[in-house]
Amino acid sequence: MTRPTYFHPVAHLVRKEFLQVFRDPALLRMVLLLPVVQLFVFGYAANTDLKNVRLSVLDESRSRESRRLVEAFYQSGVFIPGPAPSRPDDIERLLTEGKAEIGIRIPAGYARDLAEGKQAIVGVLVDGVNSSSAGRAQGYAEQILLREAVRGSAGPVEGRARIEGETRFYYNPELRSRHYMVPGIVVLIITIISSMLTGAAVVRERETGTLEQLLVSPLSPAQLIAGKTIPFAILAFADLAFATTIAVLWFRIPLEGSVLLLAFVALLFLLVTLGGGLLASTVSATQQQAMFTLWFFLVFGILLSGFFYPIENMPRAIRYLTYVNPLRYMMSMVRGIFLRGAALPDVWPDLWKLSLIGIAMFSLAVFRFRKRVR
Amino acid sequence: MSGTELEKAASANRARSGPSDGPALAARDLTRRFGAFTAVDRISLEVARGEIFGFLGANGAGKTTAIRMFCGLLEPSDGEAWVDGLSIATRAETIKRRIGYMSQKFSLYDDLTVEENLRFSGGIYGLRKREIDERAARLFDRLGLHDSRRRLTASLPLGYKQRLALGAAALHEPRVLFLDEPTGGVDPLARREFWDLIYETADSGTTVFVTTHYMDEAEYCGRVSIMVEGKIVALGSPKELKENAGVSTMEEVFLKAVRP
What we know:
The structure holds 2 protein chains of 2 kinds.
Chain A: H1 7-23, H2 25-45, E1 53-59, H3 64-75, E2 79-81, H4 88-96, E3 102-106, H5 110-115, E4 123-126, H6 131-152, H7 160-164, H8 167-171, H9 177-208, H10 210-215, H11 221-249, H12 259-282, H13 287-303, H14 316-322, H15 326-340, H16 344-373
Parallel strand pairs in A: 1-2, 1-3
Antiparallel strand pairs in A: 3-4
Helix pairs in contact in A: 1-11, 2-9, 2-11, 3-6, 9-11, 9-12, 9-13, 9-15, 11-12, 12-13, 12-15, 12-16, 15-16
Chain B: H1 3-16, E1 25-34, E2 37-47, E3 52-57, H2 63-70, E4 78-83, E5 86-87, H3 92-98, E6 99-102, H4 114-124, H5 129-143, H6 158-169, E7 176-180, H7 188-203, E8 207-212, H8 215-218, E9 223-228, E10 231-236, H9 238-245, H10 250-258
Parallel strand pairs in B: 3-8, 3-9, 6-7, 7-8
Antiparallel strand pairs in B: 1-2, 1-4, 4-5, 9-10
């Protein structure tokens, strides 16, 4: 009586899990609606693009070149004309009084310096009350200055090296926050779906008493774990495909890199989230507890992932903390694949660290799970 | 049929029924402690094959703890036990293939249909689809659930659910079937029907080990034990126990045992 039934029981577990998800309106909503809602809320509402930044210009050069520079500012679509200062001190006053957000002073020698290929110094003053929008306004301004400098200059431009360090601007030339946000949301979606569903699925069975029924069956812990993770890995992949499609077709986010690499990176990332879900289930008696435990870690993971706030802007101690945050690596890789067309060698520094964390987390989860069910 | 053929058939039979022709279930000084509390205190018993054994005791007497040890859900602190001749300490994984278990909690999935539940129960025991379908069809006919097989299990009356759970626990034709207070919360008629199903299961050769605190149910068992504070204080057929105690019902036997 030899029957090839080893995978058979796992297939039954997977099938049962799908039946339950598709029969539970709350779970189904989570799987189908969460990607759409998150993409649209963050893609539209949390749009942090700069618009209508009032610019005060003190043009002491009064040349063709300086007028072209000012025109370039207005044509960027970011800046609108603010009150005109008559003296250098006026710029500061206008900023302090909140009548302008940014001021530039084009010195008298601007046109001459450009023509001679010397470094032209343009003063830029930014209202820094809202530091993140100020930083971006400054970034735009510098970009425009650089472009104009290159156009008008005969020789090398001093400022170039500094600007080139800002790769974000380079790859997202319009600094479209949507381009930056949407790939991040894709990461959030698969994180939440896979970890939450796995955690809930195990604990739900503990609550109803069916887990005990599984434990007296000949299912091995490995089979049980497979049965409780494979369904949600599949759903996470479905959501990844779904969210990526919306991102590309609706939001027109460029997907420069390979879809295959994106899927491969996601597969490794699932070790983290499925492991996290299993771990949460081993310390929770109820679904609420499991959800709460997961949220606690997810909030930290998301805040320290660079999703909202650039990691470079964080205090050093916090920055060190992000090194153990798997979401950090995932965010950076997915954004890279979407916006920069990053290939395997480009994502490798992030990938091996993510894999290490993933393997460690999943092993710990398996260990804890086996201990708990024995 | 010649003598040797008979012997061959008998040994083939033995091979199928496992390595041991001894008791279906045995315990020797089986003990389980939780910290300073001894839930099961050196119990010893033997249950013969095909027997319906009633494992009686008040709530908290240690019945569930004992069953959980037999089923491999809990490790004993001391003592030994064998299920189908296999030691629970060393052969727990093999034992799991040969037992069925129905817990106090209703243990089917409410959000699956009747049919899906049975398919799942059979599937995780490695039964083939055809085997499952045949046995499920027989069970549906037996329970009169044939027309309800595509209904969600949640919508069944409790009495049906319990019999369905028993059917699911016995679908893989276990050697020993553990039922932990299977008839809680249903009316006497539903309990009677449940016991009819237990008898049928036992008739097909399965040993049934059942806990209950309904004393009328104790009368249905071949032999019973009464557990008080982790210890077995009485063991025998209902008739013997009643005679020894000089009373006429199991209820009185139980009360005497619990409050000597």
